[in-house]
Write a structure and sequence with these properties.
The chain has 327 residues and is an alpha/beta fold. 40% of the residues lie in helices and 15% in strands. It is built from ten helices and 13 strands. The strands form four sheets. It has a seven-stranded parallel beta sheet with strand order 3-2-1-4-5-6-11, with helices on both faces. It is globular and about 55 Å long.
Length: 327
């Protein structure tokens, strides 16, 4: 019998990689792609009858009920979110409506319509905030510093509440930074690799960034969606840190990306006060030993490979006169 999966946020970076993974394993996928799917829609045809587009919104309960009723899912992956930390200060209300209250709506829709479904909730390492132990693990206290992190913490707790109160199979993946050539341009890694490509091609002459000393645990999105699926294959629902365990600064990412095309980052990078966040988390580094032990998951793509992959993709993109840019 074919497994049916419902993915919210299907047109984003993680949704694209997850769709490819699930269809490759014989799933029937129903994707909620949101109002601005960008280049994602161009690739839907290659999945044929295995993929169905649904219209729904985390701010609209009725649309979520319809989506669950139509898809009759065995597995639900909630990847939809206002995913920018910086953007959450600009519009904290919308961030809360989507990232926090929206998760309650989706869980309620599943509880009422497909309570047997296994559910994945995308949590975030930003929930740990500053002052946390390093590396961070499942037991590390949450100290969110941004509206984005606070909404993700709420969703994390409510997902656990539905698991414990209703016996639903709801697992949260505490996802540390994961990147790819599909990363949105508003994220620092993609801003770096795209600008590196433009500088190399003579289309730009400098890269303006905020805090170069911020330390992050960066992995490859294609590896991380495999962990999402593995969580839902487990007999018991639980929460897992998904991370590489390696930490690098934004400065390190710049150096690696520029050196990949034979450039010295120090000649081009400028710090810009306008790019600084009101509050930034100093160090995020995850301990994924639980996921490795219980799920058999481990990351495959290393930091240097990830940066090179993204620079190469942006070199190709910027070399094309009218290449599509994923938003």
């Amino acid at each position: 019998m074919t497994t049916r999966a419902l993915i919210t946020g299907a047109a984003g970076q993680d949704g694209t990689y997850l769709t490819e993974l699930l269809i490759g394993k014989g799933y029937e996928v129903y994707g909620v792609i949101g109002p601005a799917p960008g280049a994602f829609r161009d690739g839907i045809g290659r999945w044929g009858e295995a993929y169905t587009v649904l219209s729904a919104d985390l701010t609209d309960m009725e649309s979520l009920l319809r989506a669950v009723e139509v898809s009759r899912p065995d597995e639900v992956y909630n990847l939809a979110a206002q995913s920018s930390v910086g953007g959450s200060w600009v519009d904290a209300v919308t961030t809360t409506e989507v990232n926090a209250v929206g998760v309650v709506r989706l869980l309620e829709a599943v509880r009422q319509t497909a309570p047997q479904a296994h559910v994945f909730q995308a949590a975030s390492a930003e929930m740990f905030g500053n002052g946390a132990e390093v590396p961070q693990r499942e037991s590390t206290p949450l100290r969110p510093h941004s509206p984005y992190a606070a909404t993700k913490a709420y969703a994390f707790h409510i997902a656990r509440s539905y698991r414990e109160s209703y016996g639903m199979h709801v697992s949260s993946g505490i996802m540390f930074n994961h990147e790819s050539p599909l990363r949105g341009m508003q994220f620092v890694t993609r801003k770096i690799t795209n600008t590196v490509a433009r500088i190399k091609l003579g289309l730009a002459d400098e890269l303006c960034l905020g805090n170069l000393d911020a330390k992050r645990d960066w992995g490859f999105a294609g590896d991380y969606v495999e962990a999402m699926r593995l969580m839902l294959q487990s007999a018991e629902a639980d929460d897992y840190v998904i991370a590489t365990g390696e930490v690098h600064t934004v400065r390190d990412f710049c150096e690696t990306a520029f050196s990949h095309v034979g450039l010295d980052w120090r000649r081009y990078v400028r710090t810009d006060e306008a790019s600084m966040r009101p509050v930034d988390v100093d160090v995020l580094c995850g301990d994924s030993s639980k996921a490795r032990r219980l799920l058999g998951w481990e990351p495959k793509v290393r930091f240097e490979e990830l940066a090179a992959m993204m620079v190469d993709a942006d070199m190709q993109l910027e070399s094309q006169a009218d290449g599509p840019v994923r938003s």
